[in-house]
Amino acid sequence: xxxxxxxxxxxxxxxxxxxxxxxxxxxxxxxxxxxxxxxxxxxxxxxxxxxxxxxxxxxxxxxxxxxxxxxxxxxxxxxxxxxxxxxxxxxxxxxxxxxxxxxxxxxxxxxxxx
Length: 114
What we know:
By secondary structure, the chain is an all-beta fold. It has a single domain (3-109), classed as Jelly Rolls (Sandwich). It is 0% helix and 71% strand. It has strands at 3-13, 19-43, 49-60, 66-70, 81-97, 99-109. The mean pLDDT is 93.
């Protein structure tokens, strides 16, 4: 492992509608394993919900071409783990309803990933 990056983010909503919060992380082209983990949940109502995941990634492929992939946190099953060679940008999001939740974002940097 050549290094790592770690952040925590949280969102809360007391009401009966969804609240979403997003983040971006940019780096020079780097082989990266990235993960999101929910680490706390405080329920404000009897019925609560949390959704989190990566919503966008950009990478430089083996031919030097910049590529991207997108996911919609409200309609797609979003990835919580990505293994990407040449990663240059990641976006993630957390959506909450009737609760407070915290997530951990970890990125681990390697010489190569498969």
